[in-house]
């Protein structure tokens, strides 16, 4: 193993964590690095509770309650903050800034989900060596137990891959370190440690689970899956296990895709679900399994499959070289039939999504993608749809979100099974949502329990 070779070269070398055997040649492990920031995070939480506890974050109007709680600031979420105009920032860094500083794979250029994971968990940009150590740590955790393999292999091929993913992730809680320690009487101050261990296990295993589902549903079944190469990163192994190991472009887009989709502050359905279910002290597997069920909704993660379906339907109807007017006509058809244009609009953003920009930029940087008629149609839609949606006059944000581009890139490299796209979103979102869950437990947030009102009570209050 690479790590072992590096360890031999560097004698001063520490143990990662009590619960896991991989060692970090670079010095402090992820767990030890998080432990260093725990006192300051707890101090900050204490200050906020005592000094600002009575300050108002805004007024709650009936329209917020009737309108999906849009705009209400009701949750702490430290790893990322979403600005309506600027888009997402991870611990204060924009996507282009992250792309500059977060280490890529040795054989690639795109920022790695592993380096994003380290960053989201700690707020500190990992060094090359720390990233390599985390890659090796996750590789050690990525094998799934035989009972889980059996469960996955028993699913009918016709069961939607997201339903399989939800079920498999929930079943992995059989080995939850958090649940075991909790029932053995773990102290509250220790919660974050086993939450971290479960989260790293889950993140690593989710890629292996996803690859197994893909093999069962679209290829020749699990017996043909190549063995994991534990010297490689999660995206490389995932690509290799689903038959794309020889496609460098695919491996790179999977790395970028997974790094970009990790986190989008706390209010979106999958992040909020992880936070809500986790607040009941359900273990990370149960919390994230619930989140995946939300990600499977067409207004959230499933939009990436819908967006590509829409692009391909335009291509089928009028060809890849459709004119702007023809694209407009297709857009009006979908709007006039009462449907939404998938991949457009956002509950918070009011400008094009910088995640869309990053994916579009990837396409434009890679000649074979830039010349693909499907990608060119995505680009055409980007030029035409905002005008049509503005004229339509309903959506508050006529610009593309990340889902407008992501499917076309996967499709370009030959991942043509749309129903699988949200699974790839799911391997990524685990990284952000579980980083935030670790932080929830560092600062000891209580069970989430807002107050509901009935429509009758609103009428009574204000009549
Ligand atoms: N096409 C047509 N109409 C749209 C629209 C779109 N892309 N986006 C919003 N609208 C409509 C809404 O349906 C709503 O209509 P009604 O008043 O008839 O219900 C109206 O415009 C106002 O909606 P909004 O306030 O602008 O948007 P919301 O915050 O309610 O919803 C979102 C946000 C993303 C669910 C919505 O824009 C949408 O359905 N987009 C298409 C699906 C999509 O791309 N989802 C992925 C989002 C990213 C992610 O979470 O992964």
UniProtKB/TrEMBL annotation:
* Region forming the signal peptide: none
Instruction: Show the Gene3D superfamilies listed in the entry.
Output: Citrate Synthase, domain 1 (1.10.580.10), Cytochrome P450-Terp, domain 2 (1.10.230.10)
Q: What InterPro entries does this protein's entry cite?
A: Citrate_synth-like_lrg_a-sub, Citrate_synth-like_sm_a-sub, Citrate_synthase, Citrate_synthase_AS, Citrate_synthase_euk, Citrate_synthase_sf
Do the record's keywords include Mitochondrion? yes
Q: Does the keyword Transferase apply?
A: yes
Which residues participate directly in catalysis? 300, 346, 403
Q: What is this protein called?
A: Citrate synthase
Source species of the chain: Mixia osmundae (strain CBS 9802 / IAM 14324 / JCM 22182 / KY 12970)
Gene transcribed to yield this protein: Mo05970
């Amino acid at each position: 193993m690479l790590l072992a070779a590096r360890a031999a070269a560097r004698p001063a070398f520490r143990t990662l964590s009590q619960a896991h055997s991989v060692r970090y040649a670079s010095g402090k492990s992820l767990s030890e690095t998080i432990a260093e920031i725990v006192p300051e995070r707890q101090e900050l939480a204490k200050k906020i509770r005592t000094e600002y506890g009575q300050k108002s974050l805004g007024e709650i109007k009936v329209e917020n309650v009737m309108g999906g709680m849009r705009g209400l600031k009701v949750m702490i979420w430290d790893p990322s903050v979403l600005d309506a105009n600027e888009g997402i920032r991870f611990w204060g860094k924009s996507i282009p800034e992250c792309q500059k500083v977060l280490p890529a794979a040795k054989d690639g250029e795109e920022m790695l989900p592993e380096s994003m994971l380290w960053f989201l968990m700690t707020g500190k940009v990992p060094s090359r060596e720390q990233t390599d150590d985390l890659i090796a740590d996750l590789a050690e955790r990525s094998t799934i137990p035989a009972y889980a393999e059996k469960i996955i292999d028993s699913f009918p091929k016709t069961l939607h891959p997201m339903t399989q993913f939800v079920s498999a992730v929930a079943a992995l809680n059989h080995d939850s370190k958090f649940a075991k320690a909790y029932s053995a009487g773990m102290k509250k101050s220790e919660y974050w440690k086993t939450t971290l261990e479960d989260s790293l296990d889950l993140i690593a295993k989710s890629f292996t689970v996803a690859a197994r589902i893909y093999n069962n549903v679209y290829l020749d079944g699990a017996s043909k899956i190549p063995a994991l190469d534990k010297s490689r990163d999660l995206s490389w192994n995932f690509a290799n296990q689903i038959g794309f190991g020889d496609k460098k472009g695919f491996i790179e887009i999977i790395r970028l895709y997974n790094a970009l989709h990790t986190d989008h502050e706390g209010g979106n359905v999958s992040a909020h679900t992880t936070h809500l279910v986790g607040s009941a002290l359900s273990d990370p597997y149960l919390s994230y399994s619930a989140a995946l069920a939300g990600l499977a909704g067409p207004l959230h993660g499933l939009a990436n499959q819908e967006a590509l379906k829409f692009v391909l339907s335009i291509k089928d109807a009028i060809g890849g070289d459709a004119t702007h007017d023809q694209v407009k006509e297709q857009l009006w058809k979908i709007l006039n039939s009462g449907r939404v244009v998938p991949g457009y609009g956002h509950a918070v953003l009011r400008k094009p999504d910088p995640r869309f920009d990053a994916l579009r930029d990837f396409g434009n940087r890679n000649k074979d993608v830039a010349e693909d008629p499907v990608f060119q149609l995505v680009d055409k839609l980007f030029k035409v749809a905002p005008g049509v949606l503005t004229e339509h006059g309903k959506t508050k944000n006529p610009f593309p979100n990340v889902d407008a581009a992501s499917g076309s890139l996967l499709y370009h490299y030959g991942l043509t099974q749309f129903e699988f796209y949200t699974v790839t979103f799911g391997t990524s979102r685990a990284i952000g949502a579980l980083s935030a869950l670790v932080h929830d437990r560092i600062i000891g947030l209580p069970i989430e329990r807002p107050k509901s009102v009935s429509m009758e009570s609103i009428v009574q209050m204000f009549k």
